[in-house]
Design goal:
The structure is a homodimer. Chain A is mainly β. Chain A has one domain: Jelly Rolls (Sandwich). Chain A is 9% helix and 45% strand. The first copy, chain A, has two helices and 16 strands. Chain A is globular. The interface between A and B is large, with 45 and 45 residues. Strand 1 of chain A pairs antiparallel with strand 11 of chain B.
């Protein structure tokens, strides 16, 4: 059955200081236990859950429309913290549709975006208030909170992008982002 | 010849207070003379040019990439003012690709967005700092500066949207937005 295509304009509000939005069609919370396939130090992760409970690492508030094509958008909030030496990050994914690009706009906090096309090209960009990052559809992308407060950013991508998390679960990104002497450092990912 | 597809991530900066961006691939200035097919009171427009010169009504700074699919984005600045009783506005257009939706984010100033699908459905939304407007691809859209300062907003749409200005030149939007007693008022467009 074909999805019904809504063709009704709508509006919502975004607070351009803290990123909160006035409506969304889904809210997703990603907790420590959801991140087991992604963090390098699985023992540190399990210890965290035992000691601090299964807390939310990041959450996103999205407007996904009932349109086959169209634009999905929302905000992501990554809370500060680390698991072992790794800072809190998003799972990261490839788009199934390699032509589906994505754009980020930093609203608050300090982050790093990793971009990896799986074929040797790897980039990292700082993401702060007012940074716009253009992510070509063939690059896996992950965001890392390297600061001491919530990292908040706006994202937008074509509704037909699709998501591939499995490739990331298998080997992660080319680099790990570690907190060493209270600074972020990129090191080669041994599993890659 | 097929367009070369660049697949290199990039970043730029946006000032989230005034909307200025640090780089763009094109800057377009739209002047009084370019707007002759769009304003209702052509005599008022011609008089303006004679008295005040052929000034810029609005300008936009865009990042259009060499990608067949992808996302184009930028900011539009509409300067305050009026031509006859009509406030300054953008030409407005339909997308040729009716599946190509668009999103606006208000940064500064006070505006109105008109949405018209040409088949009887018409909407108008206030556009101010922090307003996000979702424009389905089958709706023509025009933005009007109904305030006393620059209206600045961020826009983003799929690169394969295409633009149809001719339909708007022929009959405009269902409503005109007039400045009456220093307030905006929507009235039926007699040419529509």
């Amino acid at each position: 059955m074909e999805a019904e295509i809504k063709s009704i304009p709508f509006y919502l509000l975004i607070d351009l200081v803290n990123g909160s939005i006035s409506k969304y069609t889904k809210k997703i919370e990603v907790r420590l236990s959801d991140m087991k396939p992604y963090f390098y130090d699985i023992n540190a992760l399990n210890e965290k859950i035992e000691k601090e409970g299964n807390y939310v690492i990041y959450e996103y508030y999205e407007n996904s429309l009932d349109r086959i094509k169209g634009l999905n958008f929302g905000i992501t909030i990554i809370h500060p913290g680390s698991i072992g030496k790794e800072y809190h990050f998003t799972r990261g994914h490839f788009h199934l549709n390699k032509e589906a690009d994505e754009i980020y706009i930093g609203i608050k906090g300090k982050g790093l975006v990793l971009l990896d096309n799986g074929k040797g090209e790897f980039y990292s960009y700082l993401l702060e208030r007012g940074t716009i990052i253009y992510i070509p559809g063939d690059f896996a992308h992950r965001t890392i909170n390297i600061g001491d407060e919530d990292l908040v950013y706006f994202y937008i991508y074509p509704s037909d992008a699709g998501h591939d998390y499995e490739s990331i679960q298998r080997r992660g990104f080319k680099k790990l982002v570690l907190k060493i002497n209270n600074k972020f450092t990129l090191v080669d990912n041994p599993r890659y």
